[in-house]
Write a structure and sequence with these properties.
Helix content: 25-40%
Number of helices: 5
CATH class: Alpha Beta
Strand order of the largest sheet: 4-3-6-1-7
Distance between the termini: 9 Å
Order of helices and strands: EEHEHEEHHEHE
CATH topology: Rossmann fold
Shape: globular
Structural class: alpha/beta
Number of domains: 1
CATH superfamily: Phosphoglycerate mutase-like
Number of strands: 7
Length: about 180
């Protein structure tokens, strides 16, 4: 039987534009309340067999706001590890590996971090486990990277085009697996 998967991206964050962040536990922006209210309305009265959240506070806070304070923390749904580049402005990164990463992001990891394919494998492992668990309706509060990976996993977009499908903050993406 197909599983309905509802992926909820966290609200906007309080970091300067152009900042490289992923695994860093950054705070939410001052727009949290308004964005979270709209997100909660999108979820409506949906029922879920299981609800998960990334361990990062920006995802957990939205899960709490939406009424899922008991969401199961799932480390595999954490955002991509940007390694040594975390919390640095992209324009200020002089590492020669930055060009290699942008030219070959699918397989080239960030310095001391992950490649996009590493992130995909992490997310796919979680989704494989979910499918084997037998749940029919699951919600996951997470990040843009894992949501793009889930869309690839579901066969909706090719891996090479994932970055052109990043969901907006506080959005809800529905998939059938």
């Amino acid at each position: 039987m197909p599983m309905q998967l509802c992926l909820i991206r966290h609200t906007s964050v309080a970091v300067p534009p152009g900042t490289c962040y992923g695994w860093t536990d950054v705070p939410v922006s001052d727009n949290f309340e308004a964005e979270a209210r709209v997100c909660k309305a999108q979820l409506g009265n949906l029922h879920f067999d299981s609800v998960y959240t990334s361990p990062l506070s920006r995802a957990r806070r939205l899960a709490d706001y939406c009424g899922f304070a008991d969401a199961i923390v799932e480390p595999r749904m954490r955002e991509m590890n940007m390694g040594d580049w975390e919390m640095r402005p992209f324009e200020g990164i002089t590492d020669p590996e930055l060009k290699e990463y942008f030219d070959h992001y699918l397989d080239a990891p960030t310095k001391n971090g992950e490649s996009f394919r590493d992130l995909y494998r992490r997310v796919a492992s979680f989704l494989d486990d979910l499918r084997q668990g037998g749940a029919q309706s699951v919600a996951v509060f997470c990040h843009g990277g894992p949501i793009m990976c889930a869309q690839v996993y579901a066969g909706l977009i090719p891996l090479q085009e994932a970055y052109s499908h990043i969901p907006p903050y506080a959005s809800v993406t529905h998939l059938t697996l």
